[in-house]
From TrEMBL:
Membrane disposition: Multi-pass membrane protein
Major localization listed first in the record, in broad terms: membrane
Listed InterPro entries: DinF-like (IPR044644), MATE_fam (IPR002528)
Family assignment from sequence similarity: Belongs to the multi antimicrobial extrusion (MATE) (TC 2.A.66.1) family.
Name of protein: MATE family efflux transporter
Keywords linked to the UniProt accession: Membrane, Transmembrane, Transmembrane helix
């Protein structure tokens, strides 16, 4: 299989279909609880029959998507660094990585709480909704932002757990988080009639309780591990490496959000029906993305562990198996969307006009899992290997390619050109990383 001498300090390990699925399956289930929570939040507020409350909730949730996606590096960056320490068998560094991530999470979380009023005002001005929408939005943001330190620490906890390949524990923690959130959302928001405020307080409480549970599990585990010396925790070089990694992932996330924002904005230029149809169709891609994310998470842990273990064979097998499962899943999703997409669209919207427009562009949406699978899996491999600079640079390249395709194709082909530009974005993301993968593997091993 792989040629060349094995380093004396290598710690090879078996990468099998079972080890891939042991991470991917529970994390796919965990990721799927997130949209379920959004559905419950919307359903609870919707019971009040006030469109302004629904609009305020949706607008507030959009603000949090932007804010917290910005800090998602605390999850992915921690996963890669812990996986590498796990591969080296360095339990002390696993602890150090986790506590460094917690320190960053606490500092960032406190800053977000302090900035909550300004974030609420900025969000209200950006959305530009009517007075009652802005009022509901402000209430939601100011309350929910209190959860920022807890939510960011939960990112660090999940990153540590996934870095060790414990998908089952990750599923349990996410189920507890979203389960508590859903129950309290119904109790506070609906039963006690708190509305938007109740939904926000449910999130704060869920994040707090999930954080306490996660910290209790990890601290109990650390009791049996070697004691963490203070100088290891406060190692400035390690802190700077983590900050550099997190900065690159943040830039990559911003670029991704910018691409989808441009897609939405351009769709709006084609009219309200087209905008609505695109939003419905994007749900198909997002659902497929939750499944693909499970295998990307498996790639993160196994690739990172292989880098730490200096196990080239394990690394190459990780890439092959996660791509195999990813393409199999993407192909299945594309077939389902192609054959049954019209029925899925009908479930999402009751508007016949929107359905008619969506059916025209359905083939483009049906193909997005296949176009995007390589991007998902390569992201997982590069995050695990902590090759963050490459991820950042290739994402910026992909954004430029998307922008060029958008402004070239959309004027002449309309919404067909917009969807074609999205496929260009997904394909360039995946193939650009794949192109440099062999060079990075040669350097790493």
């Amino acid at each position: 299989m792989d040629t060349g001498a094995t380093p004396a300090d290598a710690r090879p390990f078996a990468v099998t279909n079972r080890s891939v699925l042991a991470i991917a399956v529970p994390m796919t289930l965990a990721y799927l609880t997130t949209p379920l929570l959004g559905i419950v939040d919307t359903a609870v507020v919707g019971q009040f029959g006030d469109a302004a409350l629904l609009g305020g909730l949706a607008a507030g949730a959009l603000v949090f998507d932007v804010v917290f996606n910005t800090f998602n590096f605390l999850r992915s960056g921690t996963t890669g660094l812990v996986a590498q320490a796990f591969g080296r068998g360095d339990e002390t560094e696993e602890q150090a990585v986790f506590w460094r991530a917690v320190l960053i999470a606490v500092a960032a979380g406190i800053a977000l709480v302090a900035l909550a009023p300004l974030i609420a005002i900025a969000g209200q001005k950006f959305i530009g909704g009517e007075a009652r929408v802005s009022e509901a939005m402000g209430i939601y943001i100011r309350i929910r932002m209190l959860a920022a330190p807890f939510a960011l620490i939960n990112y660090a906890i999940l990153g540590y757990v996934l870095g060790r390949g414990e998908g089952g524990l990750g599923l349990m923690l996410q189920a507890v988080l979203n389960g508590i959130n859903i129950v309290l959302c119904i109790l506070l928001g609906l039963k006690l009639g708190w509305g938007v405020a109740g939904v926000a307080w449910a999130t704060v409480t869920g994040e707090l309780l999930a954080m306490l549970l996660g910290l209790a599990i990890i601290v109990w585990r650390f009791r049996a591990a070697p004691r963490l010396p203070r100088h290891r925790l406060l190692d400035m070089a390690a802190f700077l490496r983590m900050l550099s990694l997190n900065r690159d992932i943040m830039i990559r996330s911003f670029s991704l959000l910018a691409a989808f924002a441009l897609f939405t904005r351009q769709g709006a230029q084609f009219g309200t029906l087209t905008l609505a149809a695109n939003a419905v169709l994007m749900n198909l891609f997002l659902v497929a993305g939750y499944f693909l994310d499970g295998f990307a998470t498996a790639a993160e842990q196994l690739a990172g562990r292989a880098i730490g273990a200096r196990a080239e064979t394990s690394f190459r097998r990780t890439v092959r198996l996660t791509l195999f499962w990813g393409f199999g899943l993407a192909g299945t999703a594309t077939l389902i969307f192609w054959l049954g997409g019209a029925g899925l669209v009908a479930l999402i919207t009751t508007s016949q006009d929107v359905r008619d427009v969506a059916d025209v562009y359905l083939p483009w949406a049906a193909l997005t899992p296949l176009s995007g699978v390589l991007a998902f899996q390569m992201d997982g491999v590069f995050i695990g290997a902590t090759w963050s600079r490459d991820m950042r640079n290739m994402m910026l390249l992909s954004f430029l390619a998307f922008s060029a395709a958008l402004f070239t194709l959309a004027p002449s082909l309309g919404n067909h050109g917009l969807w074609a530009a999205l496929h260009v974005f997904l394909l360039v993301r995946g193939f650009s990383l794949l192109t440099i993968l062999s060079r990075r593997v040669h350097t790493a091993f």
